[in-house]
Each structure stands twice: as structure tokens, then as C-alpha cells.
Amino acid sequence: MGIMTNLFAVIISVLLDWVFGEPVKYHPLVGFGQLANFVERIFNKARLKLLAGFVAWCLLVLPFVYFVYLLDSYLNQKGISSFWLNALFGWLAIGHESLQYHGRAIHRALHAGYLSVARKNTALIVSRDTQQLDEPELSRAAVESILENGSDAVIAPMFWLLLGGAPLVVLYRLSNTLDAMWGYRTKRFEQFGKFSARLDDVLNFIPARITSLLYALSGHFKPSITAWKQQSGKWYSPNAGAVMAAGAGALGLQLGGDAVYHGKLKQRPLLGEGKPPLSQDILDSLALVRRSTRLFLMLATLFTLLWIIYLKPEILNLGIAID
Predict the structure, then answer these.
(1) Residue 24 near residue 317, CB atoms below 8 Å
(2) Nearest to 284 by CA among 208, 237, 220
(3) Which tens digits make up the pLDDT trace of 164-213?
(4) Of 42, 160, 191, 279, which has fewest CB within 10 angstroms of its CB?
(5) Which alpha helices (H) appear in 183-278, and where do they start and end?
(6) Which pTM value belongs to this model?
């Protein structure tokens, strides 16, 4: 019944996120981020930065994962379902409504003509410099971030929660958070954050491709598949390239292109085909993520039922004899 428990936990986690959003105060990831900053300031002074980054990752992530694993095992030993434990950590890991909130805030500012507000709002969800961006550039940055986070903060947590319950979703979310904080190719993080970045690539490999397929199925299918197939390999990140290329094709937009990060111009290939995004396309990208989330839940339910029927039929045996 483990996979059924995980499936119901995924559904409840998404519903909790849709209804309540993320905790406004005392979100565990905020505290974890503060702890990560403290650890990084100590360990990043080491001479062997690659090793220091690995040790820092282990110290920050493994104790929390092990604690959740012990709690899950304890509940099982006591004959208590771990359903609510899975649902709780799933809710804390899934960021669908947070993504919707930040995306709509950028759209409202752009729609009202408040560029300074839009730049500040966009800076909350992107790592590029936003001080000089105009409406098309802000829209492009927002759409790209929404598409990428649709994988990292929505589909991937649901995938790992379905696959392994609370311990795996905690492992994924903490690892992804460290990648977001340390995974930059700057002098400070090039070596120190390399382990976090490479592990995040591994953990997101399957979820990113599931997300790409969901985007294609939830938008313009053929352009999405074409962009995914032909353009994703040109992007500097294998997972983000697949997700953003498929999303750009699904929306009929052209994304990518050069952008300024940490004061330096970064040359990036173009993704998708069509018009450059404007503020309305931010709402369209949010709608694409929402449709993809619903489709994931539907497909996860279908595949779970098929798995039970064909591989674990005894679960459905209710002890009723039929002549």
C-alpha cells in the first residue's frame, strides 16, 4: 500500500498548497537557508573548496533526511500510517501557489506600468540583474523562471514524494535549495557549490523530462516537442534547457538570448519559436504550469492504479468470492 499512500499524500499536498499556499511565517526552508548561509561562510574559507562544499552539503542535508526517515520508520513500526507525514513534507516542498503568487505580482506591476516595482518583483525569482530591464525583458525573465520552477518546485517534489515519501522529498527539496543558493559559476561558488549543482542535475534529470512532456501535452504539442528535441542540448543546463525549450514551444514564444548575471553578460542560445514574451505571457506560463500539475496528478493516479492491477492485484483483494 506504500505507493497508494504516497499517491494520496501527493494529492493532499497539492490541495493544501492550492488552498493555503506556503506558510507565511516560520517556513522551514527559510530557516534552512539561514543555516546554509552560516555553514557556507565557515566552510567556504577552506583551501579545498570542492571537498568543503561536499562536507557542507552532507552536514546540512543528511541529518534532516535521516531524522525524517527515522520518524517514518517509527510510525510504521507502531502501525501508524505515514500518510500525514508525507503530506506535511510534500506541502512544505511544493511551491505551486508561491510561483503563481510571484508571477501574478510581476504581471500586475507590468500591466500597471510600474517598471521599478516589476523589476523588484522579478528579482525575487531570478538570479539575473533586473535593474535595467524593460517590459519584454522582464516578461522573458519571468516566463523562463516560471517554466523552470514549474519543474524544480512543483513537478519534481511531487515525483519524489510519489516515489519515496517524506524522506526522498526532503532530500530533493533541501538539495535543490542548496543548488539555488550555491550553484553559481562565480569565483565564490564555482568550486564550493559544484557538488550541490551536479547532484541537483541528477535529481532533476527525470522530473525535468516529465515536466517537458507535460508542457507539450498541456500546450502546443508539436512545436514543444520540436523545440525540446532540437534546442535543449544547446543550453548550458541539461535540465533547464529541456524544460524551457519545451515550455517555449508549448506557449509559442521565443525565450533565451543574452542576459546579464552578476554584472557580466552571458551569451545564451534562443529557445522556442515565435514572438518575444510580454506581460500577458506571464499569465499564460502560469496557466501552463497549473494545467501540467493537474495532468501529472491524473497520470500519476492512472499509472498507480495500473501498477496495482497488474503487479500487486492482492491489494485489491477484498476477500469476496465471485462464482
Answers:
(1) no
(2) 220
(3) 999 999 999 999 999 999 998 888 999 999 999 999 999 999 999 999 99
(4) 42
(5) 194-218, 221-231, 238-251
(6) 0.92
